Structures are given as structure tokens and as C-alpha cells.
Amino acid sequence: MSISTSSPLYNLLPIISRFHVDMVMKPIRSSSNGRHFIITSFFFIVFLCVLASINEIRFDSLLRFGKCAFSRSTFHDSSTKNFLIVNSTSSSSNSSSSSDNEMRILIGIPTLPDHYHKRHFLRLIYGIQSPKNAKVDVKFVFCNLTKEDQKVLVALEIMRYDDIIILNCRENMNQGKTYTYFSSLPEMLNNTKGPFPPYHYVMKADDDSYFRLDNLVESLRVLPREDLYYGYVIPCPSMDPFVHYMSGMGYLVSWDIVEWIRESDIPLKHLEGPEDKVFGEWLRDGHRAKNRYNAKWSMYNFPQPPTRCTHELWPDTIAVHLLKTQEKWIQTLNYFNVTKNLKPSKFYHIP
Q1: Alpha-carbon distance 146 to 114, whole Å?
Q2: Where are the transmembrane segments (predicted)?
């Protein structure tokens, strides 16, 4: 019988050998003593084997438990450095967060129909990101088309990319566009064939924000998939997501809140005002979003000019906001080395 070097029994072999040598080296004075020695040795070895087998089972169980505990403690140690989880109250929601391996996220970026170049640029930014075990769809959101050229050019975009949502509204920023976006999604998506909910989370993100999708997905994995409100707490010094609201740079809610927005009269009575502030007031007045997650300081404004909402770029970033110029975009993309996977080719040379 071969014994693995990783087995606890392997560590007992020196003890068994020393016992055997000590007994053999002692003079055997009679055949009775010899038989007694053989029988004693046999039962002693059997006892050690049984003991080692039991210990090996316990050792393996202990090892698995230790690995699990270590991995969890390591994650929370790293996450609490940059994140703050506040009031995760729903045990059923927590269990559902791990019931589906593939997370589904919809990111809607409000924009204007004429902003063709901006959309093409953002398609490059998000098209090269492929988060693991997650489906992240980025859609561009605007109101009804008003020009003849838009009807042609936007139609071509839809035919080519299929990433545009046109809402039935007049173009605006703080007069109900956000409400129309969220409240229209259940009717658009619930009737289609596929899983339910169609998305676990829905986000509204600014077009001057850069989201690193892998980090976004990882931050969501341990969070509930019901009654969740996620983002960067305003005002900038605040760390309590229950006092005010999440910044318009990018905030996310679970699908049940999207359905509530469609069904409730509370949002309809309060449509005008800064859209991110108004959104937070809906949830407050409706006693929604018992689970809230403040992603500060992994979400922040671009370092320049410095304010209380900014800090330097760093590796644990989820989102950088206020990328208002091409230079700021380039500086940010260079910092995160987004072109590192560019394959060498004879067709181009990029130093």
C-alpha cells in the first residue's frame, strides 16, 4: 500500500519505525514473548492507521473550512478599504445574490441624438471590456428624434450596434427623462423571451464617466439583488447613503426598484429638479432601498481641478467622473493601460 506524502499517516511513519526498531533490538527471551510482541505490534499499527485515517478526514475538513474563511476575510479586508456597506437587511436578498452565476446589468447612458462621435468613442471604451461571469449591456438613451438626418443616421447606428433606446419624450435633462428611462424598461424588457428579471441591476451613468466593468461587477457580487441603491454618496464628505442621495455620475438600483418606479405614483408627483437628487427623494418618500452601498472612494471625480470630490487615480477604481475633455480621457485610459492587450501585427506599428 502506497502512502501519499501529503497524508497525515506519512508523518507517523518515523514514529512507527522507531517503535519497531526499539522492539526488535530488545532481546526476545521466549517464544511467548515473541508472540506477544507480534500481536502487540500488529494492533498498535492498526490503531495508528485508524487514527491517521480519522485525522486525515478531519484535517481535510478543517483545511476546506480554513480556505473558505481565509478567502472571505481577505475579500472583506480589501473591500472595506475602499467601500462601505450600510444596512444590508434582507437575508433572502443576500441568498439570491449567489443563486445565479451570471450577473446581468444594464447601463443606460443619457445622451443626445446628435452626439454621434461621443457614442462611437464610448463604444470603443466599453466594447473592449469583458467582465467575467456577467452580462453587461451598455445602451445610449435619448428622447424622440426631431430631425430628418437623425432618422437616417440613428437608424444606421441601431442596425449596426443595436445599443440605442429611444424614449417617448421631449429631450430634457431635469424634467423627467430619468423617470421615463426607468419606468419604460419593464414594458420594454419583461415581454421578451429570456430570464427573469431581464437584468438584476439597472444603472444610469453620465457620458463623461468611465466605468471599469470588472471592478463594478466584483463590487456587486456580495450585494443583495433586491431593494438595492448603489453609487457615490452626495455631498462629497458624506459616507452615509441614507442621509442624501447618489451622484448622477452613475447610480444603480435592483430590478424590483425599477418596477416600483413604473408602478408608483410617488415619482410622477415629483419629476422636475436635479435628476440624481430627485431620484434619491423618490426612494426616501417611498421607503425603498433598504440596502444601500456607498462605492466611495472607488468612484470619484477626475483629480484636476482638485475638490472635495476628487483624488488621484488608483488601481481599485470603479468609475472616474468629469472626463470633460479628450486630454482627461487619454490620461485616464493611459493610467489604466487599456491598450495592454493590443496584439502585435504586421499591419500596424504603435510605439
Answers
A1: 10
A2: 36-54
Rounded CA-CA distance 262/148 in Å is 31
- Whole-number Cα distances in Å, 178 to 34, 183, 224, 261, 304: 92, 8, 23, 11, 28
**In this predicted model, what pLDDT tens digit does every residue of 33-68 receive, in sequence order?**
566 656 766 666 666 655 555 444 443 443 443 433
pTM over 0.85: no
Whole-number Å distance between alpha carbons of 185 and 181: 7
pLDDT digits (tens, 9 = 90+) for 124-168: 999 999 999 999 999 999 999 999 999 999 999 999 999 999 999
Is residue 223 within 8 A of residue 252, CB to CB? The reply is no
Spatial distance between the Cα atoms of 63 and 193, rounded to a whole number of angstroms: 44
- Residue of 251, 218, 256, 216 lying closest to 233 (CA atoms): 251
Which of these, 8, 27, 49, 11, lies nearest to 41 by C-alpha position? 49
Q: What is the largest CA-CA distance in the chain?
A: 114
Alpha-carbon dihedral sign for residues 143, 144, 145, 146: negative
Residues with Cβ within 8 Å of residue 116, at least 6 apart in sequence: 153, 157
| Dist. CA 204–CA 230, nearest whole Å | 11
Alpha helices per DSSP H over the chain? 8-25, 31-82, 91-96, 116-127, 148-161, 177-189, 213-220, 255-263, 275-285, 326-335
Cell numbers linked to 35:
508472540
8 Å CB contact between 176 and 169: yes
Q: What are the backbone angles phi and psi of residue 48, rounded to the nearest 5°?
A: -65, -40
